[in-house]
Amino acid sequence: MKYYIIAGEASGDLHASNLIAELKKLDNNAELRGWGGDLMIEQGVNVVKHIKELAFMGFVEVIQNLNTILKNFKICKKDILDNKPDVLILVDYPGFNLRIAKFAAKNGIKVFYYISPTVWAWHKSRIKQIKKYVSHLFVILPFEKDFFKKHNYEVDYEGHPLLDEYQNFISTLSSENNFRIDNSLSSKPIIALLPGSRKQEVLKMLPEMIQLSETYSEYQFVIAGVNSLGIDFYNEILNNNKVEIIFGQTYKLLMNSYAALVTSGTATLETAIFNIPQVVCYKAGSFWFKIAKLLVNVKYISLVNLILDKPAVKELIQNDFTFNNLKAEFQRITKDENYRTQLFENYKLLSEKLGGSGASKRTAKLMYKYLTQ
């Protein structure tokens, strides 16, 4: 069977690669083509466009690269028609993928969508597009199934693929699990700092986070660095502050941490899966935050709280994200044993809601079933 898969970001490349690995086990004759990254290439996908050429963030950058984006649409549409796939599998990346879904459906190509656009938070008009052009939607958050049901659209939920990543990580650990910081084993409890993956996020989050290290010398603060930003970028923010930076070891860092300060996003869910007490932080420019408040309709900003539908972890958002507030919440997650115990109980409930590992395998089986019925 011929599969055409489109992922436009690093997270999509990761989840698509795991899905493809499971599809290949079910279909020995799978022909794989698409748009993605190195992980998809490792799974044997003939990648037409690499995600490095697709990562345009923010309104200004999109406008500056509008000609390239429009050209990419043309290239993608032509390549799909030339290759006549049995199914088009779209992974997240809604700004691009929903337009391609419409094109493919109008040309008689079956469309599967894996990892739903966050229409439950904003841009609800996209629900009509999904219902009209997507044959099957495979969601990864438990509340999304009920959300779409209220809109008369049945979707499939087989768990969250991050649990597969967690299990893969655990299975590759050595028995010693020595985590080295600055070429030596840290004797102090580690505090993980996850300030985000985008430059503007890090610039707003990290200075407040590292200020805590000056107050709490009994801990070793360690930043989970992003390779694409580079060591020089972080060093400029640190300004000789004695906070360590590690690259490519975020899961190992979390596994060895006592607590964490986390910028809102998938990292909040990853931190919870590793059972690490956390404070969720987020701050944007005042103008963009006002726009977001008008457009986004959610009670919480972290995935942990959204899934549990309660304030299980503390969120310091915008004007609440101050050093004094951060210090107070840091005290709670490190010193208050009752609070830490309550967090662990909430994390256990979260794990139950997420349904355990094997999401990629179950989703692949369901996709193959739909294709071969």
Walk me through the structure.
This protein is an alpha/beta fold and 373 residues long. It has 2 domains: 2-159 and 358-372, Glycogen Phosphorylase B (Rossmann fold, 3-Layer(aba) Sandwich), CATH 3.40.50.2000; 170-354, Rossmann fold (3-Layer(aba) Sandwich), CATH 3.40.50. The protein is built from 17 helices and 15 strands. The strands form 3 sheets. It has a 7-stranded parallel sheet with strand order 3-2-1-4-5-6-7, sandwiched between helices. Helix 1 (10-26) crosses helix 17, helix 4 packs parallel to helix 5 (94-106) and helix 5 packs parallel to helix 6 (126-133).
CATH domain class name of the largest domain = Alpha Beta
> How many helix segments?
17
Number of strands: 15
Question: Which radius of gyration do the C-alpha atoms yield?
Answer: 21 Å
Look at the helices and sheets and give the structural class: alpha/beta
Summarize the amount of helix as a percent range. 40-55%
The CATH architecture of the largest domain is 3-Layer(aba) Sandwich
Strand sequence of the main sheet, in spatial order?
3-2-1-4-5-6-7
In CATH terms, the superfamily of the largest domain is: Glycogen Phosphorylase B
- Overall geometry comes to globular
Number of domains: 2
Report the sheet with the most strands, covering strand number, pairing sense and barrel closure. 7 strands, parallel
The CATH topology of the largest domain is given as: Rossmann fold
Low-pLDDT stretches are: none
Q: What gap, in angstroms, lies between the N and C termini?
A: 13 Å
Q: Look at the structure and give the mean pLDDT.
A: 88
